[in-house]
Task: inverse folding
């Protein structure tokens, strides 16, 4: 049995992104290791890569050389890149703290922005970014790896469109790995990822954001009632300045999310358990889901999931499609609407962990 996510049909229009002029795309910052997603595969459907802005020339030259890209793509600053390369959209691959500065530079010039997850280090930054995006009418999107998992759309379809799970009751989300140092993240990435100012926290921000984004999307943009979080430093000798393990409980009038974010899992994981009143679905990055519905004695089934199609299978092609108007982003996993609430959850989680108290969201 193949499941095609009907929610995806609501996102895509009939005009092909390939028929549009390529989006002039630029990169701001190269210290985030996720920049390798574009370095390793610079040719994306609907995009033309026009430059990288990175003040650390040695880093930029090393990464461009490794990717067999010309040094002429390097610019010392975002202002210089914008002046000379004339991008239509910029993707931010610096620290989370630097996201605000990218939007402050790009928005007044009408340049669209996509940042790596999460949207911002705190709600003060997030609100400033939202104000700029709305004032200057640009798209401000947030990229998560989990946005491109086909099973998430199929699970959403079962829950919200087909209503096969009953009313949502509980979602348990697991994200993380053994730790950024343990898995070999680069020195430039570790420098800010383990800085409480530049990253806003440790595992609570790095991996808690996935759950906050997915839960807000599953709840169709509903704001939660409260957020409670507990963080730990299980490896203070490795990560002395930030948490390396976090559990976030998010409550709604009729549902609850438990977000487990950690740099202490024995293996890499990004998976979700969705429990409705009459059924459940377990999903991860694979092209199948575990589903159980019906009576108490029903059996669990493995359900095959169809791969996502371009442009919904790639962050950069998706950005191009949104800017060109062939995909609508309102209310989806990358949208500003969803990510403002996701950021509110993260901000409350950090405060809850710091004070030891539940944060009520009024």
Result:
């Amino acid at each position: 049995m193949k499941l095609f996510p009907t929610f995806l049909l609501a996102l895509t229009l009939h005009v092909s992104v390939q028929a549009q002029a390529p989006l002039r795309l630029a990169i701001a910052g190269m210290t985030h290791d996720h920049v390798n997603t574009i370095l390793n595969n610079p040719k994306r459907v609907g995009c033309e890569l026009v430059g990288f802005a990175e003040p650390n020339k040695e880093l930029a030259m090393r990464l461009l050389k490794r990717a067999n890209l010309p040094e002429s793509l390097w610019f010392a600053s975002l202002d210089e890149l914008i002046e000379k390369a004339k991008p239509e959209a910029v993707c931010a691959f610096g620290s989370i703290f630097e996201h605000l500065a990218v939007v402050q530079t790009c928005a007044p010039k009408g340049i669209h922005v996509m940042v790596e997850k999460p949207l911002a280090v705190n709600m003060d930054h997030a609100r400033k970014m939202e104000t700029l995006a709305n004032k200057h009418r640009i798209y401000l999107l947030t990229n998560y790896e989990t946005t491109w998992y086909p099973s998430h759309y199929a699970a959403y379809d079962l829950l919200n469109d087909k209503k096969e799970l009953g009313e949502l009751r509980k979602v348990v989300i697991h994200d993380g790995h053994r730790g950024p140092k343990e898995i070999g993240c680069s020195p430039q990435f570790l420098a800010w990822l383990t800085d409480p100012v530049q990253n806003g926290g440790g595992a609570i921000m790095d991996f808690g954001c996935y759950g906050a984004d997915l839960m807000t999307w599953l709840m169709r943009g509903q704001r939660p009632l409260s957020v409670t979080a507990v963080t730990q430093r299980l490896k203070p000798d490795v990560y002395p300045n930030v948490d390396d393990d976090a559990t976030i409980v998010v409550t709604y009038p009729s549902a609850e999310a438990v977000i487990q974010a950690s740099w202490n899992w024995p293996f890499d994981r990004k998976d979700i358990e969705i429990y409705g009143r009459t059924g459940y679905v377990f999903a991860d990055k694979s092209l199948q889901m575990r589903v159980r519905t019906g009576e108490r004695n029903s059996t669990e089934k493995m359900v095959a999931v169809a791969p996502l199609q371009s442009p919904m299978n790639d962050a950069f092609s998706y950005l191009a499609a949104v800017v060109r108007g062939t995909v609508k982003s309102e209310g989806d996993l990358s949208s500003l609407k969803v990510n403002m609430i996701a950021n509110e959850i993260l901000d409350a989680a950090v405060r809850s962990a710091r004070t030891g108290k539940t944060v009520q969201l009024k």
The chain has a mean pLDDT of 95. The chain has two domains: 13-145, 148-360. DSSP finds twelve helices and 16 strands in the chain. The radius of gyration is 20 Å.
